[in-house]
Amino acid sequence: MVGMRWETQRLDLDEPTTLPGMPSIRGLLRSVQVPEFPGLTFHEVRARSALNKVPGDSAMPFCYTINPYRGCSHSCVYCVAGDTLVLMADGRQKPISELRVGDRIVGTEQRGTYRHYVTTDVLAHWSTVKPAYRVSLADGTELTASGDHRFLTGRGWKHVVGAMAGRDRRPYLTTNDSLLGFGGAASPVAACEQYRRGYLTGMVRGDANLKVYRYQRAGRTHGDVHRFRLALADVDGLIRSQAYLAMEGIPTDQFEFSGATGNRRAMTAIRASSAAAVARIQQLIEWPVEPSRAWQRGFLAGIFDAEGSRSQGVLRISNADDEMLARTQDACTAFGFDAVLEDPGRENRVRTVRLRGGLKEHMRFLHLTDPAIRRKCTVENIAVKSDADLRVVAVESLGLDMPMYDITTGTGDFVANGVISHNCFARRTHEWLEFDSGRDFDTQVVVKTNLAEVLRRELARTGWTREHVALGTNTDPYQRAEGRYRLMPGVIRALAESGTPFSILTKGTLLRRDVPLLADAAGQVPLGLGVSMAIWDDELHRALEPGVPTPRARLDLVRALADAGLPCGVFLAPVLPGLTDDEASLDAALGAIAAAGATGVTVIPLHLRPGAREWFMAWLRTAHPELVPRYERMYARRAYVSAEYRTWLAHRVAPLLARHGLDRQSGGAARGADGAQVTGVPGDEEVGFPAGSLPTTGLPGVRPKGEPDAVTPAPGPAADDGGQLSLL
Fold first, then answer.
1. Which helix (H) or strand (E) holds 552?
2. CA–CA dist 243, 252 (Å, integer)
């Protein structure tokens, strides 16, 4: 039971430092409470050592551990409603509930006096239920968020709600504040039939060759030639046009129109040459007597793709045809845009319809029309300046709890409904059930700020024999605090450069940030990576793991590791008797894990230790009262399930592991009544580490100390932080 507790509770810090109002902790530099982690205190310390020695009599398959943090900021609760529109890197918007880890979105970074919009990645995505507030802005923008969420104002980051004094004192929004951004924009466009016809009208009339040539040919009454050709440098517009034509029964051929030159990009074209096709296209692009709003949206998208540009803060559409210019200006006016016609007096009579109103109106135009050519739609490197009226008009409680979503990004922020929103790392104060330190573990996190420096010094000692070092065996190294302190890159580099094999066990999708670094390290030393996937069922996940990255987000992490050529073993844990141990659930989970490219899997039944037992049983009485008697019998005298249940689960899992090619493991396996080994489900007193989660040399017959043919048995608590009750 205490296998993983030995030295992990020893901080090995410098001499005590006591600051006014701060706790007495050895090596304390400062204790801080930062807005992005309400209710959480970070104690930043200077550690004297980084490596923790595992006792010689331990069954662990590693000799040393490293814990960058003591305590954990992993289980967070957050922030904005699921229909909040997040600005993507290509200029489109997507509801935050639909984002996934790895999506490219827009954040900001400070450059001199101004912030600038930049592209960043979604590193984590999660949800919970929180009391909802509505923030209303003067331009009509509305945001639904939790009280803990923060938005950027002209006077810095501010929470939705707070207080001037007392325990809840923090900066918060008032009607004296204005948010930063470009403000609310139009909702995503549905490409209906009228939108498609409008798009083709703008594109074909703007940039295509559509003609019927007539001349005399010997032996024929006429020699008509029907020709449609559309050539573009941006294939996105071409692909959309070709698809819309195909939906109207008009097939086209694609071909290379012209190659690239020193000052001109290559062009691709589509064409059709039948009389029927040309006649149908001519019919499609006839001017409507009373254009619908959908047609006008499509027309503006088409003419912008064909003849539009956006640079140096100016959005313009140019053409020489009077009808085209008039139709363009009329459509802009119909949607309330301030569009002016500018005539520079050129001989070719090309004039320009220019949209006024700055970035606010540009983004409204782009979101309203949804052009196909996305390079014209980005905000990359544009300064965060806008004349949008983003004054806070009201902040009001909606009087109800709502599902809330948040993300972690590379820049620490994102654009939500057109305003700049901070990553919200708000955190519940429920106990961290697996650890004796209880609430203090949950709210007081010790951060070893000099960890990489100390580790390098220890690895450079002449007595260091490059034994296996494990991370994630007690506290998760990729908890959300890592997003603030970024200790792991230095740790990975130090281990790899010293030739030390290492392993990482995590449930945190922040590890994805370091995949390139891990790929480089894998070329220098043996390494193993383990990801815990916990509860596969979405509803149970929301109830029991509010704030932990979803199983599917962690599955995406496994896939990213596999795509990078890295090993990754998965702990499918905990399996809940009567809830997630049916064959269909296990088959779906193991199938998805195999499809993601996991190198191995270990299935672990639920453990209920004191503290965890009380919390879980209270939840069970409310959510599934019919299962309470069964759980009381199963866990009456111990924290682990019975041997009979282990055997039953092992026999249920074994054929599923074989079906999905995950039966290559041998260590830590349960045995059936006949004494035969059943792979994949460990016993109570030992947990098999899945293949890929421990470092191997990759050379036949050569393995780190303590590792058998496939996996190594370990006491039950060993994997708990990465895949068991720390998730509940």
1. helix 551-563
2. 9
Question: Which spans in 273-321 are helix H?
Answer: 275-284, 293-307
Residues 525/695, Cβ–Cβ less than 8 Å: yes
Residue 27 has pLDDT above 70, yes or no: no
Name the pLDDT band for 40 (thresholds 50, 70, 90): low
Q: Which tokens in the block code for residue 570?
A: 């998965």
Buried b (16+ CB within 10 A) or exposed e, 283-301: ebbeeeeebeebbbbbbbb
Pick from 627, 629, 626, 586: which is nearest to 605 by CA?
A: 586
Q: What are the tokens at 674?
A: 């006949």
Q: For tokens 């569009």, what's the residue?
A: 339
Cα 535-59-453 angle, rounded to 5 deg: 80
Residue type, 602: T
User: Please, what is the Cα angle at 504 between 469 and 475, to 5 degrees?
Assistant: 90
Q: What percent of the chain has pLDDT over 90?
A: 48
Res. 424 pLDDT band, cuts 50 70 90? very low
What's the first-to-final CA gap in the chain, in angstroms? 18
Residue-range domain boundaries for the chain: 7-74+429-727, 80-184+388-422, 193-376
Single out the residue of 108, 15, 65 nearest to residue 455, CA to CA: 65
Model confidence over 433-470: pLDDT tens digits? 222 333 334 456 788 889 999 999 999 999 999 999 99
pTM score of the predicted model: 0.54
The CA-atom distances, in angstroms, between 230 and each of 42, 194, 209, 308, 686 are 61, 21, 6, 16, 67
Omega before residue 708 within 30° of 0, cis: no
Helices (H), 444-550: 451-459, 482-485, 488-497, 515-522, 538-544
Nearest to 70 by CA among 509, 485, 478, 474: 474
Q: Are strands 253-258 and 267-272 parallel, antiparallel or unpaired?
A: antiparallel
Tokens encoding 33: 């409470």
Amino acid at 295: W
> What angle, 0 to 180 degrees and rounded to 10, lies between the N-to-C axes of helices 275-284 and 193-207?
110
The one-letter amino acid at 348: N
Give the architecture (CATH level 2) of 193-376: Roll (3.10)
- CA proximity to 410, closest of 95, 148, 106, 159: 106
pLDDT confidence of residue 474: 72
- 471 DSSP β-pair partners: 66, 504
- Which has the higher per-residue pLDDT, 549 or 520? 520
Please report the pLDDT score of residue 174 as a whole number: 95
User: 118-138 burial by CB neighbour count: b if 16+ within 10 A, else e?
Assistant: bbbbbbbbbbbebebbebebe
Class of domain 80-184+388-422: mainly beta
H helices of 339-450, in order, are 358-369, 438-443
CATH architecture, domain defined by 7-74+429-727: Alpha-Beta Horseshoe (3.80)
**612-643: b or e for each residue (b if 16 or more CB lie within 10 Å)?**
bbebbeeebeeeeeebeeebeebbeeebbbbe
Q: Please give the full DSSP string across 321-336, using - where no structure is assigned.
A: -HHHHHHHHHHHHHTT
* Listed residue (3, 66, 58) closest to 706, CA to CA: 58
CA-to-CA dists, residue 27 to 46, 490, 525, angstroms: 5, 20, 32
Please check whether residue 179 is in contact with residue 137, taking contact to mean a CB–CB distance below 8 angstroms. yes
> If you count them, how many residues does the chain have?
728
How does strand 267-272 pair with strand 64-66?
Answer: unpaired
